[in-house]
User: Which sequence fits this backbone?
């Protein structure tokens, strides 16, 4: 006898929220670029009964980018959702889960992230700086100068750039470039790095130490660079998802697809 | 000439009487917005 069709779930039902929480944690755990995303809205949920105590669930989720980089150990619950005025980034995700004997597991997920439209931001906040392309010349110059400035002043490990997370440019009343980027400690001290003979390598996974930097560069009316880098300390890497395999510069572009 | 007829108000007595305190069920989806809508 076919299993009775389950009663349709509402998007705000506790069971839907529990499934969405599993889905969002899965998406963040399996992403290696950009920022952590938080649930903003459950757009739709469909339940297909396979057999007793075995359902397949299709979720459509609206997520919002938080201020925590994906490598940050900060629990998602403590990550602030980026405000509208900071030029928010939204994620649209379709997730397929299985609920077997009351336990959810993700079978597949596909997400597309995109920044809010500039018109929307400027309509509410005409003076707010907008997201800039991550390979914008001023952005790259600011990131390079900020990392170099940090490495020249630190007594700790020499840091290498992993990826630029986001950048915004304000044009008035002063010209300011704001950047955020992920870094990793190398096996050199800053002093050793100055000695070009030594090739500084990222630390192996069992000693990896990632961090995050924010910087602002005022270019007019005067030059002023401010940099703040924080290392997270060693974290045990997630076994089944390779961390950054090489230190090259990876641009996490808004408007990217992940599956 | 073709004139668009206003839809006649449904006569009060046509409406299905609702029990006192009736709260229409919340639309199942989409769910609530937790932060803000882009």
Assistant:
């Amino acid at each position: 006898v076919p299993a009775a069709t389950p009663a349709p779930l509402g998007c705000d039902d506790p069971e839907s929220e529990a499934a969405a929480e599993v889905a969002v944690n899965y998406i963040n755990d399996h992403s290696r670029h950009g920022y952590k995303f938080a649930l903003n809205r459950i757009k739709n949920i469909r339940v297909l009964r396979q057999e007793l105590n075995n359902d397949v669930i299709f979720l459509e989720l609206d997520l919002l980018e938080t201020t925590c980089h994906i490598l940050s150990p900060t629990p998602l619950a403590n990550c602030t959702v980026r405000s509208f005025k900071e030029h928010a980034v939204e994620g649209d995700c379709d997730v397929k889960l299985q609920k077997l004997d009351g336990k959810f597991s993700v079978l597949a997920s596909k997400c597309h992230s995109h920044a809010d439209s500039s018109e929307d931001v400027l309509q509410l906040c005409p003076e707010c700086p907008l997201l800039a392309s991550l390979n914008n010349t001023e952005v790259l110059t600011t990131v390079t100068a900020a990392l170099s400035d940090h490495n020249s002043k630190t007594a700790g490990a020499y840091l290498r750039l992993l990826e630029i997370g986001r950048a915004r440019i304000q044009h008035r009343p002063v010209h300011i470039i704001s950047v955020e980027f992920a870094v990793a400690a190398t096996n050199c001290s800053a002093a050793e790095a100055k000695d070009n003979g030594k090739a500084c390598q990222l630390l192996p996974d069992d000693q990896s130490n990632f961090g995050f930097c924010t910087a602002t560069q005022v270019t007019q009316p005067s030059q002023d660079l401010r940099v703040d880098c924080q290392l997270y300390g060693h974290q045990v890497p997630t076994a089944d998802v390779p961390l950054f395999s090489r230190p090259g510069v990876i641009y996490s572009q808004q408007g990217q697809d992940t599956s | 000439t073709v004139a668009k007829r206003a839809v006649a108000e449904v006569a009060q007595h046509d409406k299905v009487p609702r029990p006192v305190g009736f709260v229409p069920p919340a639309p199942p989806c989409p769910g609530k917005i937790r932060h803000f809508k882009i």
Chain B has a mean pLDDT of 70. The interface with chain A takes residues 26, 28-38 of chain B (CB under 8 Å). The CA atoms of residues 12 and 23 of chain B lie 19 Å apart. DSSP finds no helices and no strands in chain B.
